[in-house]
Amino acid sequence: GQQVQQSPASLVLQEGENAELQCNFSTSLNSMQWFYQRPEGSLVSLFYNPSGTKQSGRLTSTTVIKERRSSLHISSSQITDSGTYLCATGGNNKLTFGQGTVLSVIP
Amino acid sequence: EAAVTQSPRNKVAVTGGKVTLSCNQTNNHNNMYWYRQDTGHGLRLIHYSYGAGSTEKGDIPDGYKASRPSQENFSLILELATPSQTSVYFCASGDPGQSSQNTLYFGAGTRLSVL
User: What is the three-class DSSP state of B83?
Assistant: First the structure.
């Protein structure tokens, strides 16, 4: 089945620094999505990005299908960006998730 | 904004007991999902449904049943709970035919402890 690997597993940034989170998947995808899990546990969708580049504020997602990878770039990190970032891929909304990157942004 | 409500939010059960986790969504999505989240495993799909009356096995269905009596409601049933089912459970809904975003909306999660 589909395997999704995220790196790094955890990351500590000083406020204002940038971050690049990676997601690699084993087979061709129909859907690539990024989710953010708040420290208290709730999950929200960040991007649906099966190919190309999408930007929302300080977040940019880039998916390269041929290389079976997607990245999430966070610019000018803020303390409120702390939490877990999950990528997921699959078809017909049956998603397989990576294990996530735990981001901590410190003053 | 899609609304997905899970109940209960926290549950303590005894080994061998029956546990029912409930999920309700108010946006008329066709698809609903149950995931569990454990440290080191991320989110894993247990059961899902394409509409009322349908249930499908996900990646880790053993020990779980699901029920979709209506468009709005999707339940996860543990007939004989075991300590290995201690986890955080998330319900989600989404409808790829309805939205170009093709995303999932998650409930707040249920923390289940089986003693």
Answer: helix
Ramachandran sector of residue B69 (left: φ over 0; alpha: ψ -120 to 50; beta: rest): alpha
Q: Tokens for B64?
A: 């779980």
Residues A86, B105: C-beta atoms closer than 8 Å:
no
Query: Residue A6 in 3-state DSSP?
Result: strand
Nearest-Cα residue of chain A relative to residue B88: A41
pLDDT in tens, chain A (107 residues): 778 999 999 999 999 999 999 999 887 666 788 999 999 999 999 988 888 999 999 999 999 988 999 999 999 999 999 999 999 988 766 788 999 999 999 99
* Residue pLDDT, tens place only, B39-55: 878 899 999 999 999 99
Look-up of token digits 């690699």: A24
- For tokens 């708040």, what's the residue? A38
CA distance B15 to B61: 18
Residues 6+ away with beta carbon under 8 Å from B97: B30
Within 8 A of B48 by CB-CB distance, chain A residues are 94
Query: Contact, A24 vs A69, CB < 8 A?
Result: yes
User: Does residue A97 belong to the interface with chain B, where contact is any CB pair within 8 Å?
Assistant: yes
CA dihedral A24, A25, A29, A35 (to 10 degrees): -60
Nearest residue of B to residue A89, measured between CA atoms: B103
